[in-house]
Amino acid sequence: METEGKVIKCKAAVAWEPGKPVSTEEVEVAPPKVHEVRIKIAASGVCHSDWSYLYEAGKMSPRPFPLILGHEGAGVVESVGPGVTKVSKGDKVIPLFVPQCGQCERCLSSKTNLCTKNWANTQQGVLADGTSRITCKNQQVHQFIGISTFSEFTVVPEDNVTKIHPDAPLDKVCLLGCGVATGYGAALNAAKVEAGSTCAVFGLGAVGLAAVMGCKAAGATRIIAVDINPNKFEIAKTFGATEFVNPKDHSKPIQEVLRELTNGGVDYSFECVGNVGVMRAALEVCSPAGGICVIVGWIEVEELTLAPLDILLGRTLKGTYFGGWKSVEAVPILVEEYMIGRLLLDEFVTHRLTLDQVNQAFDLIVRGKSIRAVIEM
Ligand SMILES: NC(=O)c1ccc[n+]([C@@H]2O[C@H](COP(=O)([O-])OP(=O)(O)OC[C@H]3O[C@@H](n4cnc5c(N)ncnc54)[C@H](O)[C@@H]3O)[C@@H](O)[C@H]2O)c1
Ligand SMILES: [Zn+2]
Ligand SMILES: [Zn+2]
User: How far is the CA of 286 from the centre of ligand 3 (A)?
Assistant: First the structure.
């Protein structure tokens, strides 16, 4: 049936309010407006950040509900709105929560990937005209960071989507829409890990394991994987971890344990948990003489304390959003790196679920049972 120009009725997982499970609903997805693209989502990974926005709302900037979560998807363009030139109907695409317009000051800067195009609106769950394209029971449903991939169809701004290789398997490359690209880029772009260095990665979910993979790709010699769930250690080997530390096995603070293990501190550390205590530990694990700590864990408003001495002697504390990738140009390249075997994706996928099982995917995250559950539409 031809759907172009028409409202599409489809299924989506709607989060009606914070702290409550999502529910599968029939939603109406309006046609794309000017410079917008409507996508038939094929698959979406379930990221810890989806869970955090629902269940740790107090640690995040306020977001309006109802909301459709999901920001790690891949699909096919169903139709495009007026003025769209960058993608066409039938293209395989990955929607991007960090846009790349190519024209704003930040897009023109080599220092950042934080394009400002439609930013204020998408952070509030709406598109350029201040409304979302999705409604349910006659009510506007907000689009999480402008994306909403826990829906069979969604509409995103043209600068929040990138065309990928036509043979790319969507149920795998969806992970490049967030988690894997983020962790990998944290090592390569934010830390700029050097060959021969020593790294420590806290948190071995998809983001942390991708950071491990990035450290390995950069030629790090020692990659110390840290997690309170020892079941994650075996899989961390696959991505290149060389040593494993469970903070629960030690009575001393983890920073002391790792400093002893590394003769005074690591060159690079990564916090891929989303816990302010772990953030401070990750910082203090770095060598005071030039160590770099990258915060990847996504908590927005909870306070992080540190002692001036933590950075006074020369440590660097920095963060990264989407691994620093200039999204539109970088993601298709990452897809091709996967297709030629230079980057692992299949190994991250531990569960395959359906759209009405998003709550199960959240439960797997909480119980530490999954690396990535992929929702197949
Ligand atoms: N900066 C970004 O752009 C960005 C993008 C995606 C995700 N994130 C964030 O990255 C973090 C990780 O995401 P994920 O999907 O891999 O999560 P996940 O839940 O799959 O993995 C988190 C891991 O941290 C471990 N952990 C928990 N407490 C720990 C502790 N005290 N010490 C060591 N390990 C501990 C858990 O056992 C788990 O293995 C989340 O905060 C997420 O929101 C950030
Ligand atoms: Zn994410
Ligand atoms: Zn821009």
Answer: 33
Cβ of 149 below 6 Å from ligand 1: no
pTM (2 decimals)? Answer: 0.98
Tens digits of residue pLDDT in 333-370: 999 999 999 999 999 999 999 999 999 999 999 999 99
Q: Is the CB of 224 under 6 A from ligand 1?
A: no
Q: Domain residues of the chain, as ranges? A: 192-321
Which ligand minimizes its atom distance to the CA of 328? 3
Q: Calculate the average pLDDT of the chain.
A: 97
Ligand closest to 323 (CA) is 1
Q: Domain 192-321 sits in which CATH superfamily? A: NAD(P)-binding Rossmann-like Domain (3.40.50.720)
Chain segment 70-114, per-residue pLDDT in tens: 999 999 999 999 999 999 999 999 999 999 999 999 999 999 999
3-state secondary structure string, the chain? CCCCCCCEEEEEEEECCCCCCCEEEEEEECCCCCCEEEEEEEEEECCHHHHHHHHCHHHCCCCCCCEECCCCEEEEEEEECCCCCCCCCCCEEEECCCCCCCCCHHHHCCCCCCCCCCHHHHHCCCCCCCCCCEEECCEEEEEHHHCCCCECEEEEEHHHEEECCCCCCHHHHHHHHCHHHHHHHHHHHHHCCCCCCEEEEECCCHHHHHHHHHHHHCCCCEEEEECCCHHHHHHHHHHCCCEEECHHHCCCCHHHHHHHHCCCCECEEEECCCCHHHHHHHHHHECCCCCEEEECCCCCCCCCCCCHHHHHCCCEEEECCHHHCCHHHHHHHHHHHHHCCCCCCHHHEEEEEEHHHHHHHHHHHHCCCCCEEEEEC
